[in-house]
Design brief:
By secondary structure, the protein is of the alpha+beta class. It has helices at 70-80, 84-94, 98-101, 104-119, 128-131, 135-138, 151-171, 181-202, and strands spanning 2-5, 11-17, 20-26, 32-38, 41-48, 51-56, 59-64, 212-213. It has an eight-stranded antiparallel β-sheet, covered by helices on one side. The protein is globular.
Length: 221
């Protein structure tokens, strides 16, 4: 797992493992490019402003994150169905050690997983990325990858909690069957991503020589 700051200022997360390659590039304005590849299966998501494009093989769905129709959600499920890349990514994420998930890279993995969940129509649930790791949990993380217990960390906590509260308020403004409830989930994940970008930008998470590596068995439970 590598975290790199590009010359443009964007943050790039790379995950390279057996039969799984992931790259996500996140820009300061919230735009991102995500690609998950496993064997011949490539799953890609691109966000530009209020528009999201999801593609896999010969299927592409364009979404407006401020307005969704049930047909949009049905098409999304067709794109996601049977994706080896998505399945392997989520399996990898489930095996990450708690110490790894309490790092900037670990939080990045959680945010990708939450995005996939939103696309699949899963109700968002709190996770280390949305509840923020406790100081006692963080004490066991290697100093080279630990999230700084400073104003940066406190701002991260405050923003993800506020985003979660706004999400809960948003979904109850729509009937349970209304596809616009998914708009609430998109708004939530975008806020969490932005909070992660700011956390990495202002805290002591190192990006030495362009990258910070976490490798091998230390990643896993």
């Amino acid at each position: 797992m590598r975290l790199t700051r590009l010359p443009s200022g964007a943050l790039q997360v790379d995950i390279d493992g057996d039969n799984l390659n992931v790259r996500k590039t996140l820009h300061a304005n919230g735009d991102f490019d995500l690609a998950l590849r496993a064997d011949d299966d490539l799953f890609a998501v691109v966000r530009r402003g209020e528009h999201v494009r999801v593609s896999r093989r010969n299927l592409t769905v364009d979404l407006g994150t401020e307005a969704l129709r049930e047909t949009d959600l049905d098409q999304l499920q067709q794109v996601l169905a049977g994706s080896t890349a998505v399945r392997r990514f989520r399996a990898m994420r489930s095996m990450l050690a708690p110490a790894t998930r309490c790092t900037g890279l670990g939080a990045a993995v959680d945010v990708i997983d939450m995005l996939i969940g939103v696309l699949k129509g899963e109700p968002p649930t709190p996770s280390p990325a949305t509840t923020a790791p406790t100081v006692s949990t963080m004490s066991d993380v290697d100093d080279e990858a630990e999230i700084d217990n400073s104003n940066c960390y406190l701002n991260w906590v405050a923003e993800v909690v506020a985003a979660w509260n706004d999400y809960e308020g948003c979904i109850y403004s729509f009937a349970w069957y209304n596809p616009l409830r998914e708009v609430c989930a998109f708004a939530w994940i975008i806020r969490v991503e932005s909070a992660w970008f700011r956390l990495v930008g202002c805290s002591s998470i190192p990006i030495k020589g362009g990258s910070c590596d976490v490798e091998g068995e230390d990643l896993l439970r």
